[in-house]
């Protein structure tokens, strides 16, 4: 095997790590906002992602059946729609369910699990039990080959840029916007925030909905690399939680860091051992680290009240 | 027979129209049915307390309607329904209409066990058409053997099994694998193979057989890689890079479920497309292509005994009936067809035995032929598997397969292949 | 580190939260049988000091010697077993348990898992509960659910729970906060009585009350000790006046 | 907080009931959700009524549900009393079940009945995976005493390690839940991946005899059912003793004011570890009994989904009530079976409604309803009869 081959493989493997990183990050972000900022465990996170995926499917159906010129361009639109739909669903869920359960995190966990079961059945009734495949625009499914033997998946690049965009967006929103201010205030001290005239209930709802919306975007993006079916969400939920907890629920940077760490661990070990054992090694490492640093990598150290 | 029955029944539309016009035909059928029922008194055809009356025989259907496996098992449910309705429309079995009790295995092996117990010990069904994964079959097998039930199992599987109480209407591993590999070697000049699979018994056993065959029976061929990923894995970039290093002539893939979709999408995105790379799989039927997307799988090859696009009259009838019942968009994969065979094989055996008693049906089964099988012609082997042909289909962008090769004659089922274990 | 016969010897103690020094190289010595009152403006670090002594917060540096034994590395429950009792600012009792159970649970026997399993309600337990209940004036309310007690009674109950453990050193954080005048007097009497055979550290703002009970007063400011000594002497200390009135 | 309306926190009322009960028995005491009366009712139900009312098939099904009841009872101890919610009870159920299954499998794969294998005398799935000898760690499972000991010890040890590491570092609540989940995931991936040693996805199937006694026959099923039922009642009694002990009071106290307990000289972490271990052992016993009655063990119990479903049993029954937990486990599974038989496509909705409803409307489950409605009525009756 020639030197250039080795270089190519190294590059592509590095890219593999990066794209897994961005996948995990996309999964985690929405949850990081909900779980990290509000301390709510949303077990239905995966299903909100599925909403996004099915949104893409519906758009692609439109494109196929009614408006063929639409096909190459519908994807970005569909992603916005995915955010909107998931956001709406999240809004409703918060109003109907979550808001009654703050201060009872473990119960929220059970309730949202129930929610996820219900949503799965809804998907099944609406879209049928079989998997569907949105016809994706060709520009998304190809690969970019700067030199022979080196192929960079475009969908990987796409997911990556989306991840960067969303992370940036969230950071900006959290630290530069009124909403972010309200959220952080509410997180820091609910009573105070209330006293300061912040409508914390509304903030909660908005936060939750935004988190779900981001899940929707992630799900939409994953149609480019994964499957779309009633139970697709269940493929993601655990990883999402591990990313968030591993990073330290409180901090977004933690989420980024842990997504990166896990991704590298996974893809490197995958390269040197078989997939199954790689999976186990990664999970074990995560659990052990969590046992040593229960609050995650980036726990902020404050006086225990 | 009532009006709706006919509409329900998936008979070719021409035939149905005829029946609809002259309802006379229906009573005629029914009458002859009753006549035959008297010809086979219940006391004679059912000496083992099965759920058989003078006018009805009850069978069970046990698949996953919910859970992750529903994706795959729905096709089988539909095909078995179709077959049973057609049988009923044609007068039933020994003059008795088939009544179906459907149970949901919910993609959960223990539930399969529970439901099979219920069907056998509670409902005393004469036969069960069901299961899809090996795990669910393994879970119910002891129950069928204890209660001496009768199971028709539709999925191609790893073999290494043969039960008095089970008929395997799909292919066992060697039937599906060996001829396909020979073809890959002779026609496609493949010398180096990269074996990949989801991490459970069927892919592992199948790859084991494949490896043995490649290394011992195909001259100058070698396996350059063998990899397994947990069920539900959605990221295959590392694997794809390993494949790029190994540069195999042939990727031999046995990945299932959601992973399947992820794998082929990422394969395409990594620049490994049919025009550059030869890939042969035994785990992708028309059903899976639905999820993967025809454009992402186009050009790759599948080794199956059945493809929806098969050119023969049986299949034309079958496909027409299926689509008439389940809509023009519905697709038919290998397992769906195999599931469709179940009720017909059972009917043939019962009529040959002149009894519903399991032991008699089992005894009568070996040698039974089905000339009307969509896949062509099948025959039950003494080892409860089917003689069948193996075909190679090349996937088209529209999600259909173009049959490019077909084994010259029926391949004998060999669930315990010597030298391959 | 000095070898002392003090009950409590705190030396060069510091703790910082993300850079902010809540306690800054502080020294404090408490005698046997002494009732020490710690005063100081809010944020002076009084509560943090108690937290450090009982182990709720870990010291960044310095030493805490209790009966000449280093405490800084011990987990909370060990320090308690050594004889350090601590009452929190807000009454912290088991609202859902009866007064009796609140006291019984605090009885220093069967503290291990299996000890607790084997624990039986023997006479000595009953006697102790009765006597303590009498001490804190709740003898009549054994079966009452603690959550239903008045604020003052809750405070007393918590003190009682500490007495059950017969601590060598008893630390009270604002024991009379939110009490009526009458209740304050009773509490003062109670404290005087129970400090007969033990040392106590009390954080308090109410000067009248402090005057009633204090043997010695320590004034804290910005994590340091500003002044220490008898009440009137401290009251006339210009720095203290400055701290209290200056801003 | 208003002293007249203490802690609006979820399981307040049963606490108080239990707490008061600890001292002054009320006239209707015998029928409270945790009184001996309710236990007697339960015993009568599962020892007399069910066996008389149900045919062997249904009874065997009921036996299966009762094995889940072990898990639910364990969760009452860990979650209801200990305040630690484990989403990994499937792990312990599975470990218990597998320890039992390994013994039975070895007995089932004697050289004679496995003679068609290329290596007779080892479990069939090992043979399929080209194992030519029994792995060393399987060998001890030839002995029943060892297997039985393992059923209890292995899960308990794992629970101790995990619990100790977590609780000593004050990890609780959500983090603990998620970590137990990760453990569940790891174990299922391991079992499925290492199929040569574990049977993989299929699990360990086709178990036949226990020391030569065919466990598949109707008679055996009947006996196993009663063994299971009695074990369950004993387990409940033990847990009741724990609750009645000072340890039980402390657990309640911890859920109210953990720091107070800590500063009364108790090592809070160890108490939580204990509660967690109890839950683990109970789950394991349930798993072992499951293997015996159903005749196989598979990784589909170890995963996350079943583990969470097990929590709902306890939630439905009432997270504070041992007896309630049993009803919870039985009812949820009955509902599941019935619904999936009658409306295959609706039962997911039912489960969803169950999860949400129980959490939102009846946080204390059936026991809560009983306490708030039936008991006061009994109380009035009791009072009237007294006067």
From TrEMBL, chain A:
<dbReference type="GO" id="GO:0006865">
    <property type="term" value="P:amino acid transport"/>
</dbReference>
<feature type="transmembrane region" description="Helical">
    <location>
        <begin position="271"/>
        <end position="292"/>
    </location>
</feature>
<keyword id="KW-1133">Transmembrane helix</keyword>
<dbReference type="GO" id="GO:0005886">
    <property type="term" value="C:plasma membrane"/>
</dbReference>
<dbReference type="InterPro" id="IPR052157">
    <property type="entry name" value="BCAA_transport_permease"/>
</dbReference>
<dbReference type="InterPro" id="IPR017779">
    <property type="entry name" value="ABC_UrtB_bac"/>
</dbReference>
<keyword id="KW-0472">Membrane</keyword>
<comment type="similarity">
    <text>Belongs to the binding-protein-dependent transport system permease family. LivHM subfamily.</text>
</comment>
<keyword id="KW-0812">Transmembrane</keyword>
<feature type="transmembrane region" description="Helical">
    <location>
        <begin position="48"/>
        <end position="67"/>
    </location>
</feature>
<feature type="transmembrane region" description="Helical">
    <location>
        <begin position="237"/>
        <end position="259"/>
    </location>
</feature>
<feature type="transmembrane region" description="Helical">
    <location>
        <begin position="206"/>
        <end position="225"/>
    </location>
</feature>
UniProtKB/TrEMBL annotation, chain B:
<keyword id="KW-0732">Signal</keyword>
<dbReference type="InterPro" id="IPR017777">
    <property type="entry name" value="ABC_urea-bd_UrtA"/>
</dbReference>
<protein>
    <submittedName>
        <fullName>Urea ABC transporter substrate-binding protein</fullName>
    </submittedName>
</protein>
<dbReference type="Pfam" id="PF13433">
    <property type="entry name" value="Peripla_BP_5"/>
</dbReference>
<feature type="signal peptide">
    <location>
        <begin position="1"/>
        <end position="37"/>
    </location>
</feature>
<dbReference type="InterPro" id="IPR028082">
    <property type="entry name" value="Peripla_BP_I"/>
</dbReference>
From TrEMBL, chain C:
<dbReference type="InterPro" id="IPR027417">
    <property type="entry name" value="P-loop_NTPase"/>
</dbReference>
<dbReference type="GO" id="GO:0005524">
    <property type="term" value="F:ATP binding"/>
</dbReference>
<dbReference type="InterPro" id="IPR003439">
    <property type="entry name" value="ABC_transporter-like_ATP-bd"/>
</dbReference>
<dbReference type="InterPro" id="IPR017781">
    <property type="entry name" value="ABC_transptr_urea_ATP-bd_UrtD"/>
</dbReference>
<dbReference type="GO" id="GO:0005886">
    <property type="term" value="C:plasma membrane"/>
</dbReference>
<keyword id="KW-0547">Nucleotide-binding</keyword>
<dbReference type="Pfam" id="PF12399">
    <property type="entry name" value="BCA_ABC_TP_C"/>
</dbReference>
<dbReference type="InterPro" id="IPR032823">
    <property type="entry name" value="BCA_ABC_TP_C"/>
</dbReference>
<feature type="domain" description="ABC transporter">
    <location>
        <begin position="8"/>
        <end position="247"/>
    </location>
</feature>
<protein>
    <submittedName>
        <fullName>Urea ABC transporter ATP-binding protein UrtD</fullName>
    </submittedName>
</protein>
<dbReference type="InterPro" id="IPR051120">
    <property type="entry name" value="ABC_AA/LPS_Transport"/>
</dbReference>
<keyword id="KW-0813">Transport</keyword>
From TrEMBL, chain D:
<dbReference type="InterPro" id="IPR017778">
    <property type="entry name" value="ABC_transptr_urea_perm_UrtC"/>
</dbReference>
<feature type="transmembrane region" description="Helical">
    <location>
        <begin position="346"/>
        <end position="370"/>
    </location>
</feature>
<keyword id="KW-1003">Cell membrane</keyword>
<dbReference type="GO" id="GO:0015658">
    <property type="term" value="F:branched-chain amino acid transmembrane transporter activity"/>
</dbReference>
<dbReference type="GO" id="GO:0005886">
    <property type="term" value="C:plasma membrane"/>
</dbReference>
<feature type="transmembrane region" description="Helical">
    <location>
        <begin position="174"/>
        <end position="193"/>
    </location>
</feature>
<keyword id="KW-1133">Transmembrane helix</keyword>
<feature type="transmembrane region" description="Helical">
    <location>
        <begin position="144"/>
        <end position="167"/>
    </location>
</feature>
<feature type="transmembrane region" description="Helical">
    <location>
        <begin position="35"/>
        <end position="54"/>
    </location>
</feature>
<feature type="transmembrane region" description="Helical">
    <location>
        <begin position="222"/>
        <end position="242"/>
    </location>
</feature>
<dbReference type="InterPro" id="IPR001851">
    <property type="entry name" value="ABC_transp_permease"/>
</dbReference>
<dbReference type="InterPro" id="IPR043428">
    <property type="entry name" value="LivM-like"/>
</dbReference>
